[in-house]
TrEMBL record, chain A:
Gene3D superfamilies attached to this UniProt entry: 1.10.287.370
Official protein name in the record: Prefoldin subunit 4
Gene Ontology MF term list: unfolded protein binding
Keywords, ordered alphabetically: Chaperone, Coiled coil
GO cellular component, one term: prefoldin complex
Keyword Coiled coil part of the UniProt annotation: yes
TrEMBL record, chain B:
Signal peptide range in chain numbering: none
GO function terms (MF aspect): tubulin binding
Top-level division of the source organism's lineage: Eukaryota
Entry GO CC: cytoplasm; prefoldin complex
SUPFAM superfamilies noted in UniProt: Prefoldin
Name the UniProt record assigns to this protein: Prefoldin subunit 3
Family: Belongs to the prefoldin subunit alpha family.
Ranges annotated as spanning the membrane: none
Length: 125, 179
C-alpha cells in the first residue's frame, strides 16, 4: 500500500493495551487522590476535636458513635481520638504509597507511548 | 480482553481491536463505520455511568455498616463492665434524648429490612455485620472489574474512532491531487 502523506505510526494491539492500561491507571490515580483528600480532612477534624478537648474543663464528653453520642470522660475520649487518628494516618500513608506506584507505572507508559507516537497522541490526566 | 478479568460483563462482546485500518476499511464507507463506532461508544458510556452510579450507591452503604460495627464493638467492650452506658439518642431529626444502656447488655437487635429486627448476641451480631461489610466490599470490587472492562472498551473505541477518522482524512487527501 502506498504510504499516505503524514501517516503516523501504526497502532498495534500492544499499543492499544498500553493505552488502555494508562486509562485505567489514570482513573485509579484520581480515585486514590480523592480518598487521600477525604482521609486528610477527617484527620484534621479529629485533630480539631482533640484541641477542643484540651480546652474542655473535665466535663463528660459526648462522643459521636454510630448514630448516637456516647457520654464518656475526657480521658477515654482523648484516647479514642488518638487511636482513630493513628489509624487514619496509617491509611493515608498506605494510600500515598499506592499513589506513588500508580504514578510510576503511568510515567513508564507515558514515556513508551510518547516516544512512539510523539505529538500525535495526547495522554491527558 | 481477558475473559478472566470480566465479572458479569462477560456476556458482553468485547470491542474488536482494528489490527490494520486499511484492511478493515476495505469496501467500507468511512461515515458508516464512524457511525457504528459512535453507537457502540454511546452504549458503553451509558453502561459506564450506570455502573458508576450503582457502585457509588454501594460505597455509600459501607459507612453505614461500619457505624453499626462500631456500635456493637462498644457494646462488646462494655459487656462485662460494671458501668452502664449513657448516650444521647436521636429521636427524630435534630431531637435528641438521653438514654441509658443497661450494664451487661448481651444482645443487640439488627435491622434486617422489610420491617424485621432480629435479636443477636453481641459476637454474632459483630460477625454478621462484618460479613456484610466483606460482601459489600466484594461487590464493589466486582463492579470495579466490570468498570475496567467497560473503560477498556471505551478507550479502544476512542482510539478506533480516531484511527478511522485519520484514515478517512488521508484517503481524501490522496484522492485530491489525482482528481
Amino acid at each position: 500500500m502506498p504510504a499516505a502523506p503524514s501517516a503516523g505510526p501504526q497502532v498495534t494491539r500492544e499499543d492499544q493495551a498500553s493505552i488502555n492500561a494508562f486509562g485505567r491507571l489514570n482513573n485509579q490515580y484520581h480515585e486514590i487522590q480523592g480518598k487521600i483528600k477525604a482521609k486528610k480532612k477527617y484527620s484534621e477534624d479529629l485533630e480539631d476535636a482533640s484541641n477542643e478537648l484540651m480546652l474542655a474543663d473535665g466535663d463528660t464528653v459526648k462522643y459521636s458513635y454510630g448514630w448516637v453520642f456516647v457520654h464518656m470522660d475526657e480521658e477515654t475520649a482523648d484516647d479514642k481520638l488518638t487511636a482513630e487518628r493513628d489509624e487514619v494516618e496509617e491509611d493515608v500513608t498506605k494510600l500515598e504509597g499506592e499513589l506513588g506506584d500508580v504514578r510510576t507505572k503511568m510515567d513508564e507508559l507515558k514515556a513508551t507511548l510518547y516516544s512512539k507516537f510523539g505529538n500525535t497522541i495526547n495522554l491527558e490526566e | 480482553m481477558a475473559n478472566a478479568e470480566t465479572g458479569k460483563m462477560a456476556q458482553l462482546p468485547p470491542v474488536q481491536f482494528i489490527e490494520d485500518v486499511d484492511v478493515y476499511m476495505k469496501d467500507k464507507a468511512a461515515d458508516l463505520v464512524m457511525r457504528e463506532l459512535q453507537e457502540k461508544f454511546q452504549t458503553f458510556k451509558l453502561l459506564e455511568s450506570r455502573l458508576l452510579q450503582s457502585r457509588a450507591r454501594m460505597m455509600g452503604k459501607v459507612p453505614h455498616i461500619e457505624k453499626a460495627i462500631e456500635m456493637v464493638a462498644l457494646l462488646l467492650e462494655k459487656e462485662t463492665s460494671a458501668e452502664q452506658i449513657t448516650v444521647d439518642f436521636e429521636l427524630s431529626d435534630q431531637v435528641y434524648t438521653k438514654a441509658t444502656i443497661n450494664k451487661g447488655t448481651q444482645t443487640v437487635y439488627l435491622w434486617l429490612g422489610a420491617n424485621v429486627m432480629v435479636e443477636y448476641s453481641l459476637t454474632e451480631a459483630k460477625g454478621l455485620l462484618e460479613q456484610n461489610r466483606i460482601n459489600a466490599n466484594a461487590n464493589i470490587a466486582n463492579h470495579e472489574k466490570d468498570l475496567n472492562f467497560v473503560r477498556d472498551s471505551i478507550t479502544t473505541l476512542e482510539v478506533s474512532l480516531a484511527r478511522v477518522y485519520n484514515w478517512d482524512v488521508m484517503q481524501r487527501a490522496k484522492a485530491k491531487p489525482a482528481a
